[in-house]
Amino acid sequence: MTPAENPEINNLRASDKIEQTLRDMIITLELAPGAKISEAELIQRLGCGRTPLREALQRLAEEYLVIAVPRHGVSIAQLSLPDYVQLIEAVSHLEGIASRLAASRITATEIRKLELILNRSEAALSNDDILDFLKCDFDFHEGIAEASRNRYIIDTVIRLHRLTSRFIYLAWKNGGNTRVSVTEHRSILAALEQKNVPDSEHLTFEHTQNAKERIINAL
Q: Would you say 182 and 122 are in contact if contact means Cβ atoms under 8 Å apart?
């Protein structure tokens, strides 16, 4: 799905549209890891103004997707397996805690929302739409974090989980199995629906560990 075809992008302010477009370009490696960003080139390429572009880049820097160095400009964050191992170590424990809290706090409406996300995930895979699948993957984990009712966990999960998308995309490009992720998500959702606290935490932690092994093997 191109940015122009995405109704969510069409309803956003200018800097939000730029941010989402750049994020997609970073995730799909269209903007290569380590590449120096030229503001002038992006302004021409995206047809945008300098102010909203800088606002978007600032938010992407807060997500660790771009690196801003004073007097040296902005570059795309590097991809490395050691960084990924550290990232997934943090994500696995944090999202496990989020899932444990969510199991006792989640509502029926939130359960239904997560179910719809998983249905979209399967449709995206059937259509070979990896960007939409990655968005669904993010939405699922964000939804669990929000159900934890802990704003600090929500904020950190959002920041960290976005970073996993580039690694998932790269693994997919190398033939990695992404469909099994949806199966694991459905097991987590079943535990949440049953309000099974230990299983929710364990299955979420196990899912992130399995994802780590799949991605490392694919890379």
A: yes
List the domain boundaries for the chain.
3-76, 81-218
List CB contacts of 182: < 8 A, sequence separation 6 or more: 118, 121, 122, 125
Under the banding of pLDDT at 50, 70 and 90, the label for residue 74 is confident
DSSP string over 168-184 = HHHHHHTT---HHHHHH
Q: Are 53 and 39 in contact (CB under 8 A)?
A: yes
Q: Domain 81-218 falls in which CATH fold?
A: Four Helix Bundle (Hemerythrin (Met), subunit A) (1.20.120)
Report the alpha-carbon distance of residue 180 to residue 199 in Å, rounded.
18
In the chain, % of residues over pLDDT 70: 95
Which numeric CATH code is attached to 3-76? 1.10.10.10
Instruction: State the pTM of this model.
Output: 0.84
What pLDDT, on the 0 to 100 scale, is given for residue 63? 87
Going through 7-92 in order, the beta strands assigned E by DSSP cover 36-37, 66-69, 73-76
Please, which pLDDT band fits residue 4 given cuts at 50, 70 and 90?
A: very low
